[in-house]
Structures are given as structure tokens and as C-alpha cells.
Amino acid sequence: MLRIRALIPALIACSLALGGLSTGQALASHGQITYFEGSRELLSSNTREHAVAQLQSLGVKALRVELYWYDVAPSPKSAKRPNFDATNPASYAWGNYDWLLAKAKALNWPVLLTVTSPVPRWATSNRKAPYVTRPNGLAFGQFMTAVARHFGSEVSLYSIWNEPNHPAFLQPQFNSNGTPASPRVYRGLYQAGYAGLQAGGIAQPQVLLGETAPTGYTTVNVRTEGARALLHDVAPLAFLRGALCLNAKYQKAASCGPLPASGYAHHAYTQATSPYFVPPERDNVMIGALSRLSRALDLAAAAHAIPAHLPIYLTEFGVQSKPNRFLGVPVSQQAEFDAIAEHIAYSNPRVAAFSQYLLKDDPLGGAPGSSVRGGTIGFQTGLEYVNGRPKPLYYGWPVPLTVSRQRHGFALWGLARPASGSTKVTVLVQAKGSGRYRTLKTVSTNSGGYWSFNSSTPGVHWRVRWTSPSGRRYEGPPIGAN
After folding, report:
1. Segments of the chain scoring below 70 in pLDDT
2. How far is 67 from 3, CA to CA, in rounded Å?
3. Quick check: 440 and 411 in contact, CB under 8 A?
4. In the prediction, which pLDDT does 377 show?
5. What are phi and psi of 320, to 5 degrees?
6. How far is the C-alpha of 338 from the C-alpha of 331, rounded, in Å?
7. How far apart are CA 341 and CA 334, in angstroms?
8. Residue 114, strand partner residues
9. In 10 A of CB 472, how many CB atoms?
10. How do residues 239-275 score in pLDDT, each as one tens digit?
């Protein structure tokens, strides 16, 4: 989603053929991988060692890293392309990315590498900041060749572009007649990037399609709204159809071939009301409406636009907390909502991956949408406040817990995330009117650390306690029933 970028100034107001399809990965079945993204801390030489140690203690086992083309390209501020071999990794300044990916490899953490904007000024069509307008497909393909040659053994999964349906990352989003423009721009970039990975020596690249933001518009009215209309997001399912050359009935244009992909990436952020919230606009997809995306992917596969049974990767997610006054929930509720969202993903056999975005909160920014009008938008989805003080989520994320009301009691679900195999967790309950917790049950997890059981014991709050083999004790915050 949106994040603060020191290199991006205010937004300005105003195709390669591919080979055959790659086979979609098998559907997930209660064994999803969880990615963690904390790029600001992990890509700084001043904080990275401490951040990695924190992630290890929290139970992190995989990373998502965004690679900004602008950050590593030669002469990124120049309007004229420098004379260099764009496919040669030695032409780029990889900087802290080298340290982070090597560290992940040493820890046996799989890396999802999302290659994205901003792009070098010389690779844009208008040569204007924020350097996201119609990136040159040929240049991007050459860059991806260099990426493959440099990081090939350290990346397990690639994703092409971050939120390409959002104007902060790709422009134009809409044509002057109000129809989406970004899907076709993205299609060209995806094809070029995929071919670039192949040219870099990866015969069958594992690549995610999409990486879409959760909400937007299917069409806009330029006549009534003016130039502001062109800075709206494109709704994710409208974007998917456009990128795959599908009409509103998911019928594919004969002029477009299928796209290869190993999965579809999506950022299923939700509203502050509840993770179960279902947006009324049918082309928007939040965590509470994942079936919309599953159905769209099935229809696209039936039209022979993508491989069948493509898994869903929820590659960026977090629950905003106070002090965000626009989307934040109380910090006591953040851990509860975050666990509910993870449980939703876990229960969906189509979902292959979940994620946590941010270790530490961003500084406070403006209202949603302010980034496309010259401001910044900060995310308060972190496990820590911006000053580094832990939130309840810091203690809840290693041992997430959900409690769901049933007709005759409660269904409890959770995970001992730092565990490396089957273990035992202790579930505590607080009775109404009591200030103390008592042991409800000690339960064994499966080999992945997950557990669940039903209980008829009433309570007002529950929490989980787990002790690692080394003796470290984890205890989650109080969780209410939903």
C-alpha cells in the first residue's frame, strides 16, 4: 500500500511476446507462508541487525522486499539515458539490498522480491516526477535481466510492480474518456519483466501477477470531476480484467494471448469497522470479500487468460491503529483484528500466503489519497509505534488468537509462530467479573504451530501463553470474542 518515500516528490497533477504458460502452484491447504515486510529498518545499515534479531524472535520465516528501480539505477535523475549495459548487474548500485537478501538466504528465509517504481527519470515517457508514468518496457525488461542475474539464487518468488492500479506507483490510471489505462500499461511491463527474467537465466520464473491495491473505480467521469478523476485508483477486478484483455463478462479479446503466472498477488486491506467488512462496490476486494477474487481468477482461467487454479498471495496486509485518525482502530483491537484477518486467510484453501506490513509505524501522514496531491500518507500497521515502543500487536503477532462465538460456546484458533514443529500452548480465560485469568486448556499444535478447539466455558477475554524450547515466554494480549 502507500508508504512514505523520501525520494518521491509530489505527484504531478495532471510488447514483448512470451513463451508458454507456467503451471499454477497447488492450492494452499492450511499451510500458508507468512511474509514480513519492514524495509525501512531492514534496508538501513544502522538498524538492520537489530531488526533481523527482532524478526527472528517474533517467528518470522519469510520476507517480502520491494526493489525500487530508481534506487539502484545509474543516473536516475537524468532525463537522458546514460550509456551502459542495462542487462549487466555490475551497472547497478545494489547497496543494502545485497546485505538483506544475503542475510535472508543465510537464515533460510524465502524472499518475495517485488520489483517496482519509482523508475529512473530516463525510463519514463514524460521525464517528470514522480517517475511512474508509462515506464519504458524494453528498459524494464533489461533491468529484470540484471535482477535475475544478480539475485537469482536469493529470490524464491518474484512479483512485478507494487499496486499498479494506484496512481502513486503507475500512471496514467485512466484515459481521458474515463476508461482504465493502467491495466494495459501494466500488461506490457509484466510481459517485459517476465521475459527479462527468462533472459537472465531463469527458464521458468516463479512470478506473481497483480499485486493490486484493494479499492478503486471501474470508470471515472472526467467531464464532471476534471483532471482529479485521472488520479483515482482503478478497482482491482477492473484492473485484472483490463490486464488480461477481458471484457466485463470475462470474455478475452482474440488479439491477446494468455499470461504466465505462479499466483495472483493482492493487498486485501480492510476498513476500521471489521476484517469481515465487505465493500459494496463489486470490483473491490478486501479481506472479507476474497471470494470475489477467487471467482474472477476462475473466470479468467476459463477464458484461457491465465493458468487454472491460480493461488492467491496476500502479499501486503496490516491493520491500522491509533493515532491514525482516519483508519486506525484502538491498539488493543489491532491485535484482535490482525489475527481475525490471518484466520480468514488460513481458512481459505485458495490463499497460499499472508503477510505483515511494517515492523515500526510510519510517521503520521495525511488523509487517504493525500499522496497523489503532494502530501504523504503514513501507515500505522506496525508492531511498534514510530518511537519503537511495542504495541499490543508486538506481543500478539507471535501467538495470534481468535475467539468466535458459536451457538453453544466458542471456537478458538491460534498459532505459535516461532515454533519449529509441534508444540503445546496454554490458553487462558478471564471470567466475567474476575480480574484474573485461569488456564482453560493446554493444547497441542500441528507441525506448523497451528491449533484450534471448541469450548463451552464462558469468558470475556482470552489470551495465549507459550514457552519456547529455549525458555523464552510469549504471552499475547487480551482478546475478546467476535
Report:
1. 1-30, 369-376
2. 14
3. no
4. 73
5. -70, 140
6. 11
7. 11
8. 66, 159
9. 11
10. 999 999 999 999 999 999 999 999 999 999 999 999 9
Structural domains for the chain: 33-397 (3.20.20.80), 402-475 (2.60.40)
Query: How far apart (Å, rounded) are the C-alpha atoms in residues 12 and 79?
Result: 16
Cell of 398: 507471535
pLDDT of residue 3: 42
Separation in Å, CA 381 to CA 91, 316, 362, 387, 464: 36, 11, 8, 14, 22
- DSSP per residue over 356-400, as a string? EE-SBPPPP--STTGGGGT-------SSB-TTSPBPHHHHHSSS-
One DSSP character per residue, 172-219 reads: --B-TTSSB-HHHHHHHHHHHHHHHHHHTT-SS--EEEEEE-S--BS-
> Parallel, antiparallel, or unpaired: how do β-strands 401-406 and 63-68 relate?
unpaired
Helix (H) or strand (E) holding 225: helix 222-225
409-415 β-sheet, strand order: 401-406, 409-415, 450-455
The bridge status of strand 33-37 relative to strand 424-430 is: unpaired
Which residue matches cell numbers 488468537?
401
Cis geometry, peptide bond prior to residue 258 (ω within 30 degrees of 0): no
CB atoms within 10 A of CB 220: 22
Q: Which helix (H) or strand (E) element contains residue 48?
A: helix 48-58
| pLDDT score, position 375 | 62
What is the per-residue burial (b if ≥16 Cβ within 10 Å, else e) of 262-285? Answer: bbbbbbbbbbbebbbebbeeebbb
How far, in Å, CA of 297 to CA of 236, rounded?
12
- At residue 186, what is the residue type? Y
Helix ranges restricted to H, 265-330: 290-302
- 381 close to 461: Cβ distance less than 8 angstroms: no
Residue 371: the pLDDT is 61
In the numeric block, the cell 527474467 is attached to 197
Cell of 294: 477467487
Look-up of cell digits 477481458: 246
CA-CA-CA-CA dihedral for 97, 41, 392, 440, to nearest 10: 40
pLDDT at 423: 98
Q: What is the pLDDT of residue 211?
A: 98
Give residue 46's Cα distance to chain centre: 25
Q: Report the SS3 class of residue 463.
A: strand
Contact 223, 277 (CB under 8 A): no
